[in-house]
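[step 3/7] inverse_fold.run input=structure_tokens len=341
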């Protein structure tokens, strides 16, 4: 009851990439890079286990970018043809690669990293993948002609990857879809259908993570413009509740999301974001327990998982470690209250 997990990324050690910076280039190459990524993943697995995180991950130590880390080996993408486009409904501009021909996955992308982690922990293991809609909002299209069509092409590749990860022994495969909070009406039109294609045939737990973004200025400024209540989830939670996805991960701690919206996910396991990644302040276990306790009014404890709001890659490592410990201890406090210590 009330397991714990992380939403996504964890800080990379300074010898692997520049710390406290999103998507920093690697400081190692070749075999040294692989060894460095493995060492970083192993360190974070141990830190998560020590913090009583039940469902651990590699913290995205094997990739620079949560989307492009998957796209780097996909054929049909021209990485020399960079296109400037608005991201998350023009929240900010970015130079992105361009799809110029039919997409093809020549082989496993994250399998080696997942296998390394699976062999080194007895905990449940989660691997995160970018969701089809978010991929389409992070790459330019000069081939398919529409985002829904390109999303289904990416979903097929994601499905192949996910099936291989499941065969390795991954317990939870999570698809990150921050774009859902920017294109709310399109989630029901084609976003959920693309997720269904990406999860087709899987028997492991499937999750979708929708947040308000990393704690970077563009996202913080955007959140500051959303008013006293953040009701984006309200537009598409009914479609997700009716979907075949097992778990929905969302932002709660220090947010203006009305917790009543959790009631729209009555048929799902809910990953309650109880750690704010937009601040260096480390939560106390009591603060974490308070966030989870408030969510209990709308989510049965049997369906609740304690989680972080989003990835913690931009944070200093000691801050991230402190937040993980607070998450584990806060969930333990609440379990004790409920008589499930």
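[step 3/7] decode complete -> sequence:
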């Amino acid at each position: 009851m009330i397991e714990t997990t992380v939403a996504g990324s964890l800080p990379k050690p300074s010898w692997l990439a520049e710390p406290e910076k999103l998507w920093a280039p690697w400081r190692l190459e070749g075999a040294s890079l692989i060894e460095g990524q493995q060492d970083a993943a192993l360190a974070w697995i141990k830190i998560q286990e020590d913090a009583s995180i039940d469902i651990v991950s590699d913290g995205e130590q094997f990739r620079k970018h949560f989307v492009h880390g998957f796209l780097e080996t996909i054929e049909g993408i021209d990485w020399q043809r960079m296109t400037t486009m608005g991201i998350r409904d023009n929240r900010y501009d970015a130079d992105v690669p361009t799809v110029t021909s039919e997409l093809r996955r020549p082989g496993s992308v994250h399998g080696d990293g997942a296998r390394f982690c699976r062999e080194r922990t007895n905990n449940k293991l989660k691997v995160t993948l970018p969701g089809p809609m978010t991929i389409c909002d992070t790459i330019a299209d000069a081939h398919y002609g529409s985002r829904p069509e390109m999303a289904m092409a990416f979903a097929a590749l994601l499905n192949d990857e996910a099936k291989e990860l499941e065969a390795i022994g991954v317990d939870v495969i999570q698809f990150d879809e921050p774009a859902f909070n920017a294109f709310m009406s399109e989630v029901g039109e084609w976003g959920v259908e693309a997720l269904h294609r990406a999860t087709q045939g899987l028997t492991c737990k499937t999750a979708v993570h929708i947040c308000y973004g990393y704690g970077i200025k563009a996202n913080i400024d955007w959140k500051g413009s959303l008013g006293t209540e953040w009701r984006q989830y309200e537009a598409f939670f009914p479609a997700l509740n009716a979907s075949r996805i097992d778990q929905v991960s969302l932002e709660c701690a220090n947010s203006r999301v009305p917790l009543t919206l959790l009631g729209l996910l009555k048929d799902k396991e809910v990953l309650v974001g109880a750690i704010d990644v937009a601040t260096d302040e480390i939560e106390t276990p009591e603060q974490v327990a308070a966030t989870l306790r408030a969510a209990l009014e709308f989510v049965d404890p049997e369906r609740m998982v304690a989680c972080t709001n989003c990835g913690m890659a931009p944070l200093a490592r000691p801050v991230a470690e402190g937040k993980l410990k607070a998450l584990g201890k806060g969930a333990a406090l609440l379990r004790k209250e409920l008589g499930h210590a």
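[step 4/7] annotate
The chain has a mean pLDDT of 95.
Residues 147-168 form the longest helix (22 residues).
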